[in-house]
Amino acid sequence: MNMTLQKNRIYIPLLLFLLTFAVSGYFSTIGIDPHHDGIMFKPALDVANGKMLFKDTFSMFNVLSLLIQGAALLIFGKYLITIKLCNAFFYGLISVLVYSIFKRFLPRSVVVATVILWIFSAPYFLWTFLAWSTVYALFFLLASLYFLILSIEKKDKKAFILLSGICAAFTFWTRQNIGIVLCLMFMAFFFYEGILRAVSLKESIRRSLLFLSGLFVISSVIILWLLTNGALNDWWLQSFVHPHLWSIPVTQNYTFQLILQNLFPVTYSQSPVSLWFLMPIITLYVFLKYVIVSLYSPKSVSARTVLACIFISIAAWTEYYPIVCYRHVYWGATVMFGTFALFVYHLAKDISGPFTKKSTLITNCLTILFLLIVFYPEVSYRITEGIKKSQAQYTVLTAPSVLQGMRVTENEADYYTRMASEISSFLDNNPGKNVINLTMDALYLTFDQRIQNIHPAYVNLMFLNSDVYPAYWRTYETYWQKNQPLIITYGEFVPPGYCKDIQIPEMYGTYLVKPC
């Protein structure tokens, strides 16, 4: 029996990892988004090529995700598919952490079913797979939660609290909005433990200080690295000023009504009642239930563990705001999949308990059945769309080299191939010349390694560039007047003295213009 349990401890998470990696990895190779893929791939490629993050390149998603992806490019090759598969790898790690956390208070069969439902609720069945920073942030968030739970369960708590602080720091340095709220939730949980007398007030303060120590050490090292490389100011502008300015029109100045609409969305769901609306509601209900339990049994390990999950889930929940879409609700609800399953499990237990001696088996079966019924509209829709996507006709790209292995439609393949060919031809025929980008799509700047950044902001995010870098437009205008580069532009904007290159089929409203 012990041998069987030991094997389950290894094989179940391993199989979940392999399933997640196989599914997400498969869809990661289908489709290219020149804007979102460019936002992540271009700075990672710059870092892999020795450029300094923020000072020499542009990133509005903090430090660590770009360092992870830059390292992947150095190890596995400088291709877009590399960072996508790296992201899929972290999806696999997330599934292992979700399983490892929730098996503590749910039957293994229920947790396995929950993780599988999470896998098949993913947005990449419907939309293009993005190698997004939130995935790395979720991994570190769950790791911080895992170590927090170990600190509740084990006698030697110090190391686990310190590791929680380190992982929380990594969360912040991959996705700043999640990281800030995560740190606040840790402080709130430690304070709650002290008030509740689950631990002494002295112990609560000690736990808080240990957590902050881990947070401080990692953050100090990264800030010192940015400072000594002259990138600290650009980090602040790109990671905080830029997102804040971007969010103002999106959030309508942070109105309370919009915040509620985003945190409790009724859209992007195929269920009669939006699953993404239901999960936060149920999680809040479970929170209140376990608060009451903890009032009567403040030292209950199971109650403290569940409450820890819910406190930390609030940090992930912030991904709902300010944009609600298939991607953001999925990422934001990841931890809530477990708390939702816990609610369903207790409901099934109440139903099955009085009627049978084999209530455990019946409860587990009922829980899985209820979960399948609730998730069926979402999962069946994604599987149907995923099958359609997998059966479509694709061309595997061989050029440009950075897009090797990606599968796109025939028209997209022709577009990317000809765009890369024109860029390389211009640089071949005009030694010493450069290419600049006036669109929102940084991907094109990766097509030839001879292209040099003339400014950290190499994507045109409209008014945001000028608000963050006041000299942005003047720098670019002076550069094209003086140096006559090839320009990637959009809409009807053609600078004086330039002519449109009719060799490139228009796609995404983007085309090339050359000096006449």
TrEMBL record:
Keywords: Membrane, Transmembrane, Transmembrane helix. The chain crosses the membrane at residues 12-32, 53-75, 81-102, 109-127, 133-150, 157-173, 179-196, 208-227, 273-293, 305-323, 329-348, 360-377. Pfam families: PMT_2. It comes from the Bacteria. InterPro entries: RgtA/B/C-like. Residues 67-223 form the Glycosyltransferase RgtA/B/C/D-like domain. The keyword Amino-acid biosynthesis does not apply. This is Glycosyltransferase RgtA/B/C/D-like domain-containing protein. It comes from Candidatus Gottesmanbacteria bacterium GW2011_GWA2_44_17. The lineage of its organism: Bacteria, Candidatus Gottesmaniibacteriota.
